[in-house]
Queue: 2 jobs
Job 1
Amino acid sequence: MRILYCEDYESLSLRAGSLVISEITQKRDLLLCAATGSSPIGLYDALVTRSRTDRALFAALRVIKLDEWVGLLENDPGSCEQYLRTRLLDPLGISPARYIALTSAPSEPEEECKRIRSELEQHGPIDVCVLGLGINGHIGFNEPGPVLLPRCHVARLSDDSRRHAMVRFADRTPHFGLTLGMQEILAAKRIILLVAGAGKQQAIAGVLSGEVTTTLPASFLWLHRNVDCLIDRESVSPWNPG
Ligand code: GLP
């Protein structure tokens, strides 16, 4: 894992943006796995800014949604769908044919996971996987626990996840999420982990300890050979790794 300390959130976002743009330059029809939450907002802004002067760069880009809350309407402002639509898909002009998405209100969640598994088998692997770090060390909705699951599944959300800002104003806080599994994430050719926002000190300290444990799902990224972990120094302060 390459650890890159960034001075602040803006520099983290610009660095992540350059990494993704250089990958797209080399492979126009790249499959980008997109996390939601606060961490990748600046990265997505950087892509959108680039698209204003180079629309063609994104003309073949494909996107897959990393995870989704269960039970929100697709147009709920807290849904991952709405987030990606407004911040990434619409501004970059990603057509439905170039987007693989877990739906937020599946009538049969298990069937929805099966559908995504087979879409990934057909159209994967992911080329670049953008992840945020949960305050409890989760990636996607792969929550800490005695076991982790390899493939797309329905996840029971931890209390930490249920308190996430995205669903703070939801009528009913979701109890479950849908998420790509650990193997699907680790099969990505390149992974970019963004560590930004309040409350991440303990989780990132755990990751940097180098121990791999199911109680800290992000620690499994040590098993991958091409991971960039970008850390916003400001948000991990006062914990100071030097
Ligand atoms: C959320 C999302 C993840 C996100 C993570 C971190 O629960 N399901 O996709 O990456 O938690 O969120 P944030 O970037 O807001 O800290």
Job 2
Amino acid sequence: MTAPIKQPLNIVLIGPPGAGKSTIAEALVRERQLVSISTGQRLRAEIKAHSLIGRAVAPYLDKGELAPDSLMDRLLRASLETLDPEQGFLLDGYPRTLHQARGFDGTLADYGRMLHAVLALEVADDEAIRRLSGRRICEGAGEPFPVHIDDLASMLRCQERGGRLVERDDDQPNVVRQRVIVYHEQTRPLLDFYESAGLLRHINAHGAPAEVARRALAALPAVQA
Ligand code: AMP
């Protein structure tokens, strides 16, 4: 049996759009007291705030393309800079290209951290597209949360809380297709990269979110309290 890892636990979550990354990230963060760093969420916040970064990246997100590596590397460094060294992180959405993955090794070394595992959520393309085309975000009722138009219970939860359903611009069908293509071309090669590093753990992302979260939790390395 391998010895438990000393905290803090640092984890990367990779998956195609529609694999449920943010939902699973939420569960892992809650159960293992990790800090969530979601690059997609940060970019959307910048766009909403009409900041310089937001205006620079909006055209990429609108088309389902990836934002430039140099900008993402800086954004990641800024996130690690403000992170309490005692706290572990769950990185949702970075790295997404081989260039980012190679740079990330150096960034981790600069902050005296190591990566403990890379969880790869795996879901078939047609299921990913089905999930995204029916996804809406429930806004205006506390922390925004995703719902699916086929999931009556989640739609009702939003309605009862007085929220409104908003469709993400990049969940439009043509943008979704492009995001899936970009995942296969630019992000999927990371699986081999992290497999070679002995860090990859495959997670079947089909089924109910709670079940997928259980599988992901079970795949996390043990940590020393
Ligand atoms: P997500 O919420 O993770 O699906 O990210 C939404 C969008 O943000 C992606 O489709 C990309 O355009 C952009 N994005 C997020 N993370 C990265 C990254 N690490 N590199 C490049 N673009 C990213």
